[in-house]
Amino acid sequence: MIFVSSDKHIFSFGPDLEPVAYAKPGDIICFETLDCFAGQLTSEIQSIANIDLTRANPATGPVFIEGAEPGDTLKIEILDIRVSKTGVVVALPGFGLLGDKLRDERIRICRIEDGFVYFTVKDSSRPVKIRLPYKPMVGVIGVAYSKKVPSTIPGVHGGNMDTKLITRGTAVYLPVFKEGGLLAVGDVHAVMADGEMCATGCEVSGEVVVRVDVIKGCSVQWPIIEAEDAIYIIVSKESLEEAFYEASNAAARAISCSLSLEFEDAYMIAGLIVDLQVSQVVNVVKTVRARIPKEFASITQILEALNNR
Ligand code: CA
Ligand code: CA
Fold it and tell me: Ligand 1 centroid to 163 CA: how many Å?
């Protein structure tokens, strides 16, 4: 197994990345990851104003995958996610969907134990401890893009997609833009809901174990997630409306291709079976997904339908 330590990280998926490790198709890689604040928040009495937010959302890597060339697709199977014993959740005025309603900033350090996440309020007249499900997921997974990108914002190259389905047992497909792909992973959450409305999940450091493979001669138009029962097309755009438009278009085309239907019929079928879902609504760019049940399209058919080459 190839181990990439968290001191090797990036803050942007631009075209000038330099690899910190090398892997071959079929190799297993363990990415040790920092949390989204690069470990700067460790106590509830810290001030968020005092941390360096230019160090937000680091991704460990990048790893050069041998044989991956522009026009190919990387397949990344998530084999395991391990997280730290505590995670951090933040409310910050101006931050998240309801940032205008907040009077104060607040930090909660959650304990993660026995398969649960504990959200604890001690500094109140009525202390409470709320048990939440532990559902670890990867917020940032991406490859070097052909153009300059600010930070790890999401796009066709992956990035900060904050999609809770990127978890153990699923596979992520990303188009390759630069030689070697240059894969980086970070921003693990112990639990996060669709939308991520407060702008953080339960932010943790951790380890993400993946197996990488290269699909030659196929360049997917958008990131794709393959889960047990369905395939998801992940689209990030400036507005939710634009994102849903692109996701719908891609899903209808995929169905047209897999069921050999004209676009009009595929569109109608899509209206009956494709669920449009929100991944995150709080980054500069919003992320949505179209869910296609596997009984209507296989991963091979979807890769073929969305092949940009
Ligand atoms: Ca994130
Ligand atoms: Ca995060």
Answer: 9
Q: How far is the CA of 217 from the centre of ligand 2 (A)?
A: 33
- Centroid of chain to Cα 249: 21
Is the domain of 207 the same as that of 80?
yes
Q: What is the CATH number of the domain that holds 240?
A: 3.10.28.20
User: What is the mean predicted confidence (pLDDT) over 64-78?
Assistant: 98
Ligand 1 centroid–CA 217 distance in Å is 30
Distance 206 CA to ligand 1 centre (A): 14
Q: How many helices (H) does the chain have, and how many strands (E)?
A: 3, 20
Give the number of residues written for the chain: 309
- Write the single-letter amino acid at 185: V
Q: Which ligand is nearest to the CA of 283?
A: 1
pTM of the model: 0.97
C-alpha–C-alpha distance, residues 286 and 8, integer Å: 27
How far does the centroid of ligand 2 lie from the alpha carbon of residue 44, in Å?
Answer: 17
Residue 268 lies in a domain: yes
Instruction: Report the alpha-carbon distance of residue 258 to residue 29 in Å, rounded.
Output: 33
**Same domain flag for 160 and 291:** no
Asked whether residue 263 falls in the same domain as residue 298, the answer is yes
195-206: per-residue pLDDT in tens? 999 999 999 999
Provide the CATH number for the domain around residue 23: 2.60.120.580
pLDDT, tens digit (0-9, with 9 covering 90-100), for 218-273: 999 999 999 999 999 999 999 999 999 999 999 999 999 999 999 999 999 999 99
Of the residues 219, 251, 267, the one at which a domain ends: 219
